[in-house]
Amino acid sequence: MKPIRPLLVFGTRPDAIKMIPLVFACREHPLLSPIVCASGQHREMLSGVLEHFGVQPDYNLDIMQPGQSLTDITTRVLQGMAPILEKERPDVALVHGDTSTALAAGLAAFYARCPLGHVEAGLRTGNLYSPFPEEMNRTLLGNLCSLHFAPTGRNRENLLRQNAPGEIFVTGNTAIDVLRYTVKEDHRFSQGALREIDFSRRVILLTAHRRENLGQGLPAIFAAVRRILNDCPDVEFVFPVHPNPAVARQAEAAFADTPRVHRVAPVDVFDMHNLIGRCHMVMTDSGGLQEEAPSLGRPVLVLRKETERMEAIEAGTALLAGTDEQSVYESAMRLLHDPAAYGRMAHAQNPFGDGHAAERIAGIIAQRFGEENKA
């Protein structure tokens, strides 16, 4: 039987982190011969992840340009994928999550009549403009796919309500798989600024960068942080500042005179996962951290008005704190002053899987397309 050839496409740092376990699982499977394509939607951040994990893409579209718009990203990926699909003729194309790269690569696969599989399928907030454009991207992908790899049962139910075509498999989330490669007890931070932080104190990891928070959200969140610091002398924050200039400007304005907020450069995945494990808790508007932090026993305050990961809220591993200054402040203060509330969140079971999602997905692809290749 000829090898089954999945084409794995990703373009951003978070996508790469979550797809790398699947690259490894496909390479290790005796029936699979994967092809890896990076769009370069995030050039420097993406290349750093690939270098750390030792993954060399077979193709790199290298689309990133200064000031690129969503239209720029979408059209360049769509045009770049067409000749690759024509040349390689993969058995299936696999995209991840909700990025513009995922949508454009999925559409290119559809145009090429190549079966499409969606890793991390079925996440929904119900608001097409929050997060923007991610909610629309993943909703459209739901109608393009033959195979949906849903992390949880709730994600499966979302796809069923959408009447999404194709087959749905509940696999867990590959974000949990990554921790097997990154978290080490003896980890030494590669970023010098992190080595200078005193983790015997209560250090809170803060990340905030989403488009919908760039207006009123960030100033309100930052105001809450300043109030927390004022009321809790033993608390410090470590804030990896996103490279978006709008985020950097607001962070500088809010914390220029605040030494207990350690503003650091973007953190690589190895440092980030070990940083989570050493912090007291996490305050974030990121999606991935809502999945990863519970596996490391750290409560998460979600700095958003809604989340597509309601499983975390229901399981008690995360709390939807919103973006209002008072709500963020009160949510954080409760965890800082109520040991029982903190303990319930820290010890709640992670609803996003057991760390073997990539193996399940590779096995499904081998079985599904192995049968077709036999025929």
Structure description:
The structure is a single chain. With 375 residues, this protein is α/β, with parallel strands linked by helices. 47% of the residues lie in helices and 14% in strands. The chain has a seven-stranded parallel beta sheet with strand order 3-2-1-4-5-6-7, with helices on both faces. It has a six-stranded parallel beta sheet with strand order 10-9-8-11-12-13, with helices on both faces. Helix 1 packs across helix 7, helix 1 packs across helix 16 and helix 9 runs parallel beside helix 10. The model has no long low-confidence stretch (mean pLDDT 93).
With strands numbered from the N-terminus, the spatial order across the biggest sheet is 3-2-1-4-5-6-7
What is the alpha-carbon Rg in Å? 20 Å
Number of strand segments: 13
Q: Mean pLDDT, as a whole number?
A: 93
The main sheet comes to: 7 strands, parallel
Enzyme class: isomerase
InterPro entries: UDP_GlcNAc_Epimerase_2_dom, WecB-like
Keywords: Isomerase
GO molecular function: UDP-N-acetylglucosamine 2-epimerase activity
Topology:
Layout: E1 6-10, H1 13-28, E2 35-38, H2 43-53, E3 59-60, H3 70-88, E4 92-96, H4 100-111, E5 116-119, H5 134-142, E6 147-150, H6 153-161, E7 167-170, H7 174-182, H8 192-195, E8 202-207, H9 217-231, E9 235-240, H10 245-255, E10 261-264, H11 269-278, E11 281-284, H12 288-295, E12 300-302, H13 310-315, E13 318-320, H14 325-337, H15 339-346, H16 357-374
Parallel strand pairs: 1-2, 1-4, 2-3, 4-5, 5-6, 6-7, 8-9, 8-11, 9-10, 11-12, 12-13
Helix pairs in contact: 1-2, 1-7, 1-16, 3-4, 4-5, 9-10, 9-14
